[in-house]
Amino acid sequence: MLRCLQLGKKGLGSTAPNPIVGCVIVHQGKIIGEGFTSPYGGPHAEVNAIASVNNKDLLSSSTLYVSLEPCSHYGKTPPCADLILKHKIPEIIIGIPDPHSKVAGKGIQKLRDAGCEVAVGLEQAACREHHRRFLTFHEKQRPYIILKWAETADGFIAPESAVRTENPAPYWITGRASRQLVHQWRSEEQGILVGTNTVLLDNPKLNTRDWEGRSPMRIILDKDLKVPHHYAVLDRTVETLVLTQSEDEEKRRDGIVYEALDFSGELASRICRILYQHQVQSVLIEGGARTLQSFIDEGLWDEARIFRGSVNFEKGLKAPVISGHEVQTRMLDRDQLTIVKP
Fold it and tell me: Does 64 show up as a binding residue in the annotation?
């Protein structure tokens, strides 16, 4: 099962809205096949694992391990449970049930009804951690939310505006290794979200140019549609969703999706509802301070990834305030990375 999880990670960033499932087939104590979920629209983990078995005659006396319950419905591909039954695989070991309303135990029942021996719950905690994005989306009806920011040694995330006005050059808090890691993170999530001020001050691209992998959907909070059309986030090279309160059609750009958002109170909850409707299973929130703090204050976050650089600003915009338990702290060159969970 741990090998299933190793395999499943290979699909991170490409399978959504499908989960990152891993599958291993064992015959007389030896692995004879393995696979993981293909990019969305392609075969599931079980299909790839069965296809990798050279001698299909061995399947009728093998055990199939899979991190998540096999599907039992037709989607982009046929049901995996049917394929397992077709090859007469007698024993199936499942990490955790699938909470998706179209599955939700039906795959397990289908296999059992056909006479298969099915066990559920092997390495359950590890499987839930592995599938945390998929589970959060279907169990809580919202994306898995990762907060990310970099703060100086004295606790600021940006210099004061007067300093920026005098010298508009980028004020890097972290080093190259940390910035490249952030691009890797972007490739692993479905969406990346920032507020208006972050866009206007930094004109960020919000893509994965320093890492191989797909760029996430850009999600921009722009209450009054202040972001000029020539800014990088509106260049239409990446799927982009703008959440706004403005109804001014002249300020909208073709090729960009706009959704109405009420910016008064419980902002984070309203954002989550819209992202759920757009099937965004995970989102990396990169700023600014007010946007990050709104998710913290509403208790809508699943992990925070906080860099602390070695520079000092002495004054400026204070970093968000968060409380939780540290699950990891490590150094990247001179930067300290701390991962916090609620």
Answer: no
Is 152 marked within a binding site? no
Nearest to 61 by CA among 10, 117, 141: 117
Residues 179 and 149: beta-carbon distance below 8 Å: no
Active-site residue, selected from the candidate residues 34, 46, 123, 188: 46
Q: Which part of the chain is CATH 3.40.430.10?
A: 141-341
Q: Which CATH superfamily is domain 141-341 in?
A: Dihydrofolate Reductase, subunit A (3.40.430.10)
Nearest to 80, CA basis, from 23, 15, 31: 23
The structure tokens listed for 13 are 């960033």
pLDDT digits (tens, 9 = 90+) for 241-293: 999 999 999 999 999 999 999 999 899 999 999 999 999 999 999 988 999 99
Question: pLDDT per residue over 52-62, tens digit each?
Answer: 999 999 999 99
Q: Catalytic residue at 266?
A: no
* Cis preceding-peptide flag for 288 (omega within 30 of 0): yes
* 184 annotated as ligand-binding: no
Cβ atoms within 10 A of the Cβ of 253, count?
16
209 assigned ligand-binding residue: yes
pTM of the model: 0.94
**CATH level 3 topology of 1-134:** Cytidine Deaminase; domain 2 (3.40.140)
